[in-house]
TrEMBL record:
Organism for this UniProt entry: Streptomyces atroolivaceus
Lineage: Bacteria, Bacillati, Actinomycetota, Actinomycetes, Kitasatosporales
Domain of life: Bacteria
UniProt domain M23ase beta-sheet core: residue ranges: 56-144
Stretches for region Disordered: 398-417
Protein name as annotated: Peptidoglycan DD-metalloendopeptidase family protein
Gene3D superfamilies per record: Fucose-specific lectin (2.120.10.70), Glucose Permease (Domain IIA) (2.70.70.10)
Domain PLL-like beta propeller: 182-498
Length: 505
């Protein structure tokens, strides 16, 4: 951390430079998209063009009254939703073809990092924040990462059937896809107000720390009790309240926020003991929980959003005593992956909110796994074993590549997260080293593994409200973290709030 700067102050300094720095980091348009017909676009906002794109104005300005709705120009995922001193409130949306739309000077934002939006969906209200002489939308379009300047938005929209000035439609407002948080001995997810919450499982139970404000500094550690040496999972209820699940060999317990971003309940029994657990959110907002044990995998789910729970149901098998992770397909179906030392299997919902397929073979056994999604929605799976890390990815809605070696640390703990420009980044930690690898462009192959720190026992990555990744690692000495100081640079590893926190064996 820079001398004399608080973590929060540093965040704002970085944010104020991000508009200038990020163009060189933007992803290239994937080769597969070259020559294809451009998808239809939507009108970004009603109003008149007060300034066109030119060599000294990287974008187009659409002027209208404060509070005029701003709409996404295409389908995509929100990768930035925050504040920047020159831009005011601003949003970035990554589209499946690798292009990025950027919206600035709003008075209100209606979407958060990670939300899926569709063309025509309202994402903000027009304002005059930042360096602005009057209420307007500043719209930018980014394409090829090798350039330092954007694409003329009027040309981009015209190629897709929208000519400025234009009149927006009402726009669909689908429920955003909620992708599962990584499970493990240490877990993190954002509260409804954007603050990261962190839980780490020690021999004496679960310990809890939280950001005191979004993107900000951390609280002291709080001991919660609960199962010792547990595996943990986090998932949001439909109303935004987080639910924490903890399982060890003897017991399964859970606790939840009493209100969005609020205080937590005490521990309540959730089932018997087991090896591991994972939780995800159905398309209708109901939480679904999987747990592994000596007889395979079982699952349990909310019978209504924010509601009560079903009983435990067998899943027809699955690898015994396996590590478990969940991810979500682009259409909202959950998919579960389970790995033990000899086998790897997966199963998936046959329809959103629906029943499940049988278990199917996915590969040989290994040590740990992580699952994420590409910018175009395809799932990406990494698994570690005695000779390093391998990965496998969807080549279509129901088809997969073969396993490919990537190198990396042997028998490592794995986690993954999405960078602000939509590239998957993978982190691997074993007892002697930590390394990371990242996609070199959106939906693209990966870099070589690079050093990321010394060894430890567990690792998990989460995304701050401003889109920066934060990585948490554990060891026999305690729990520590490292975060992006820009969108391609990192802090050093340090303790949270200068306190070692719980040791995780």
């Amino acid at each position: 951390m820079l001398p004399g700067f608080s973590r929060r102050a540093l965040t704002w300094v970085l944010a104020s430079t991000s508009v200038l720095l990020l163009p060189t980091l933007l992803p290239a348009t994937p080769a597969a998209a070259t020559g294809t017909t451009a998808a239809a676009a939507a009108c970004p906002a009603a109003g008149f063009v007060s300034q066109h794109f030119h060599s000294r104005h990287n974008g187009v300005d659409i002027a209208n009254a404060v509070g005029t709705p701003v709409h996404a120009v295409g389908d995509g995922e929100v990768t930035i939703s925050g504040y920047e001193s020159g831009y005011g409130q601003w949003i970035r949306v990554l589209h499946p073809d690798g292009r990025i739309s950027e919206y600035g000077h709003m008075i209100r934002r209606d979407v958060s990092v990670g939300d899926r939006v569709v063309a025509g969906q309202q994402i903000a209200l027009m304002g005059s924040e930042g360096q602005s002489t009057g209420p307007h939308l500043h719209l930018r379009i980014w394409g090829d990462r090798s350039t330092s300047y954007g694409i003329d938005p009027e040309v981009h929209l015209a190629e897709r059937g929208v000519v400025l000035p234009c009149t927006p439609g009402s726009g669909p407002r689908p429920r955003p896809l909620v992708h599962p948080a990584e499970s493990g001995r240490v877990v993190s997810a954002r509260s409804a107000d954007g603050r990261l919450e962190l839980f780490a499982a020690g021999a004496d139970g679960i310990h809890h720390a939280w950001q005191q404000e979004a993107n900000g500094n951390w609280s002291e550690w709080e001991a919660l009790g609960g199962p010792g040496n547990a595996e943990l999972a986090l998932a949001p209820n439909a109303d935004g309240r987080l639910e924490l699940l903890a399982i060890n060999g003897n017991t399964f317990q859970h606790r939840w926020q009493s209100s969005p971003s609020g205080d937590w309940s005490g521990w309540e029994t959730f089932g018997g003991g087991g090896r591991d657990t994972a939780a995800g959110v159905n398309a209708d907002g109901r939480i679904e929980v999987y747990a592994s044990g000596p007889e395979g995998l079982f699952h349990r789910y909310q019978v209504a959003p924010n509601g009560g729970w079903s009983g435990w149901e067998p899943t027809g098998g699955g690898p015994a005593d396996s590590r478990v992770e969940m991810e979500k397909a682009p259409d909202g179906r959950l998919e579960v992956f389970a790995l033990n030392g000899s086998t790897f299997q997966h199963r998936y919902q046959t329809a959103p909110n629906g029943g499940w397929s049988s278990w199917a073979g996915f590969g040989e056994g290994g040590h740990d796994l992580t699952v994420d999604h590409n910018a175009d929605g395809r799932l990406e799976v990494f698994a570690s074993g005695p000779v390093g890390v391998f990965h496998k990815y969807q080549t279509g809605p129901t088809s997969w590549s073969e396993w490919e070696p990537t190198g990396g640390p042997a028998d490592s703990q794995l986690t993954s997260e999405r960078t602000p420009d939509g590239r998957v980044e993978v982190y691997a930690m074993n007892g002697t080293t930590a390394m990371h690898s990242w996609q070199t462009a959106v939906n693209a192959p990966y870099s070589d593994w690079a050093p990321f720190g010394t060894g430890g026992t567990e690792v998990v990555a989460a995304t701050n409200a401003d889109g920066r990744i934060e990585v948490f690692g554990t060891s026999h000495a305690g729990t520590f973290h490292k975060w992006q100081t820009g969108f391609a640079t990192w802090s050093d590893w340090i303790w949270l709030n200068n306190s070692a926190g719980p040791a995780v064996g």
